[in-house]
TrEMBL record:
Keywords: Coiled coil. The keyword Glycosyltransferase does not apply. SUPFAM superfamilies: YefM-like. Residues 42-71 form a coiled coil. Belongs to the phD/YefM antitoxin family. It comes from the Bacteria. This is Antitoxin. Antitoxin component of a type II toxin-antitoxin (TA) system. NCBIfam families: phd_fam.
Length: 87
């Protein structure tokens, strides 16, 4: 569930910190009714960064799959391995 708090709640840093750590999710801070900031625990931030890195690696791998030259090299390699190990 999204946690949305007005900017004045940042005065109580311990409450915001506790909310970030207990929920494991970002806390959205509004200013004059509009989104202004996002606050999260370091653990939640690092988890999101690891997930982003994984998605970037998957996207790069998908791009490489679309490259026929790489696919042909991989097929040739597997063919050589099959011949070498007779399977």
């Amino acid at each position: 569930m999204d946690h949305i708090r007005p900017i004045k709640d940042l005065r109580n840093t311990q409450e915001i910190s506790d909310l970030c750590h207990s929920s494991g999710e970002p806390v959205y801070i509004t200013k004059n009714g509009y989104g202004d900031l996002v606050v999260m625990s370091i653990e939640a931030y690092e988890k999101k960064m690891r997930k982003l890195e994984l998605y970037e690696k998957i996207a790069k791998a998908e791009e490489q799959l679309d490259d026929d030259e790489n696919l042909q090299l991989a097929e040739k390699l597997f063919e050589e391995l099959r011949e070498k190990y007779e399977f």
